[in-house]
Amino acid sequence: MDYAEARKHMVDGQLRPNKVTEPSLLAAFGRIGREGFVPAALRARAYADDVAPIGPGRALTSPMVLARLIQAAKPRLGRKALIVGAGSGYSAAILAEMGLVVTAVESDADLVAAARPLLAAAIPGAQPSVVQAELTEGNAAGAPYDMILIDGAVPEIPASLIAQLADGGSLVTVLSEPGRAPRAVLGTKSGAGFHVQRLFDAHAPALPGLKKEPAFAL
């Protein structure tokens, strides 16, 4: 399979027609080999317009959804970004390729072990920091972050992650609540609080450990 040609088709056939217009983002998707971040037996599926399995119960977000989430956060060169649910590291590689200072948090030890060498190969000299921790913990030691990407579907945005967002920063993810269609959202933090707006309908793989806490009832 010609992966370089597959990346070009992904950019031109999946991203550009779906309102992804940021040049540096398109360039990063065109340069970073998605096939390297999925198991060898599944590389033929790496550039499909769909999620790509990477391990038990885990998958990469589809290219279109990931690209639109990142674009909505308006990443800028040199800004600090936190990725929650880094998986094998693909989204971290995209943001690092765009020149952001990236910290990637992942709870699965096998995925952490896989992500570190993959990122070292994909982004020589500017690898994201990969931290093994529970996803709800984020990485408070590096806070505040200008951008947080929760790379997967969650039923709610944990307050612990909002607390790690800088004033004026952006958080993007897919909200998947019972009884409602999943939707990509953009959260922005200011002195007045944290405001969430709907972006577009979207499906993404669910992230473990980010289940909504049940409310107490009499």
TrEMBL record:
Keywords: Methyltransferase, Transferase. The keyword Ribonucleoprotein does not apply. The keyword Ribosomal protein does not apply. GO terms for cellular component: cytoplasm. GO terms for biological process: methylation. InterPro entries: PCMT, SAM-dependent_MTases_sf. One of its GO terms (molecular function) is protein-L-isoaspartate (D-aspartate) O-methyltransferase activity. Belongs to the methyltransferase superfamily. L-isoaspartyl/D-aspartyl protein methyltransferase family. This is Protein-L-isoaspartate O-methyltransferase.
